[in-house]
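Folding Problem: From Residues to Backbone Shape
Fields: amino acid sequence; protein backbone structure tokens
RECORD BEGINS BELOW THIS LINE
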Amino acid sequence: MAKRIIGAAAAAALLLAAWVGSAAAQQAELNKRNVLEFYDKALNQKDWEAASKYLGPKYIQHNPGVADGHEGLKNLLSFLREKFPTLRSEIKRAFAEGDYVILHVHSVREPGQRGRAIVDIFRLENGMIVEHWDVIQDVPEKAVNQNGMF
């Protein structure tokens, strides 16, 4: 009898662990999808109204060249729309783990330029973007190695 109870408890624990793992994986995929949709609306379409639907009530910005909060992002998109209307950002890779989504991006402000390599890191709460970091590097004309940046 005790073995049967222990066996049932072990089976229940395994099922619970699988369900929790599955729920976490589903949330990570939802987070990734939300960030990908946000990124296209914000950076490629420069559409504040559409992009803002993916933001949480508070938005923390770590890029030192962009003001904090929703207004900072809104002002950035206005600037990009005015100064770089043809800017395109192509997402090369996207990773999601827990509440974080990381993008590896090739951004080109003007057609014909080499552009910049960007790594964007987003933190989400309940599927909404609440925090952002980035690292930006110009794509050089010549590299010391032949590996490429993307």
